[in-house]
Amino acid sequence: MATRRDTAAVREHLPIEQRRAQLLTAAAEVMREQGVAAATTRAIAERAGVPHGSVHYCFGTKTALVRALLQSEVDRSVESARHRSSRSTDLEGVLRNVLEAQLESVRTDPGHHAMLDELIALARRDPSLADLPGWEHERYVGAAAERIAEWSAASGVALARPAREIATTIMVLATGLGDLWSATGDRAVLDRALDDCVRGLAARLSEPA
User: Fold this and answer.
1) Residues 25, 100: one domain?
2) Residues 63-85: tens digit of each pLDDT
3) What are the pLDDT digits (tens) for 10-31?
4) Long-range CB pairs of 30-38, under 8 A, 24+ apart, other chains included
5) Which of 12, 34, 177, 205 could potentially form a cystine with 38 if both were Cys, beta carbons 3.0 to 4.6 Å apart?
6) pTM metric for this prediction
7) Where would I find the HTH tetR-type domain in this sequence (predicted)?
8) Per-residue pLDDT tens digits for 46-69
């Protein structure tokens, strides 16, 4: 028997893209609160207030939903980082802003960061999602490299290393700093380590290639 909530959802005829967005939001909420394992299709449908069959209608399989969720969340993180890293002046400033942008969700939204980590771990174990860890890495590195190259072109300052190489180093540093923050929760320790990373990388990039 359909519940009142299900009946209301059935009457609400949304375009499929809006329904997909609604279900992705619900899936993210469940995963953030209870973990990826708790996000069954039934739990997601209940959170969204739609019939259980809506999940399969919109995505076909739960695997397809997980893929769409990870891609949308990574895209959102990349766009947020791109906006934050636009506030740059000199080389050290652009490196700091790009690196801080990568750390933003770790520091301010640990639930989102933990959800992404769980989703990537799931993707590594699932052959049908095995391409996603590499895709995620490329999205972050590509976006950071683009921002660094844009700054170099706008400032007229030549880079001592290719923008992509610098961006890859930044991703490695961001991972380590993120682990430091997750382990300690100490902002002062994180800020000191961040300063050392930025100054060391800027000094290295000021040397001839």
Assistant:
1) no
2) 999 999 999 999 988 887 777 66
3) 446 778 899 999 999 999 999 9
4) 31/69, 31/115, 31/118, 31/119, 32/111, 32/112, 32/114, 32/115, 33/111, 35/118, 36/115, 36/118, 36/119, 36/122
5) 34
6) 0.81
7) 17-77
8) 999 999 999 999 999 999 999 999
